[in-house]
Specification:
The chain has helices at about 5-15, 20-25, 30-35, 45-60, 100-105. The protein is about 45% helix and about 0% strand. The protein is built from five helices and no strands. With about 110 residues, it is an all-alpha fold.
């Protein structure tokens, strides 16, 4: 099983977009988009799910289910159970960077 959140996290760890994920798994971009739009566990064609999970594992992603330890170690993310959603504070929109301000950063 894989959740939409795990799929998005896997893409972030691999630094790939939906198009690259689709190519990696041999699926269409709309299929990846539908999977990521799922609420919770991704539901879909078993063959498509197997292609996706296999492609992610081949790329180095280890999907960790709740209550299971990671067997291979390495970096990863895990969401703790029963955690309240963080409240988003009103963030001020920052001004666009000007070339001059970028020079100071370098």
């Amino acid at each position: 099983m894989i959740t939409a959140n795990q799929l998005r996290a896997a893409r972030a760890l691999l630094n790939i977009d939906q198009r690259q994920t689709a190519e990696l798994a041999g699926l269409s971009v709309p299929t990846i988009q539908r999977m990521e739009a799922s609420d919770g566990v991704i539901r879909g064609n078993v063959d498509s799910l197997m292609k996706l999970v296999s492609a992610l594992e081949y790329a180095g992603i280890e999907l960790i289910n709740p209550g299971v330890t990671s067997s291979a170690g390495g970096r990863g993310v895990r969401l703790r159970e029963h955690v309240a959603k963080p409240k988003m504070k009103n963030m001020k929109q920052s001004k666009p960077s000007t070339p001059r301000s970028l020079e100071r950063v370098r």
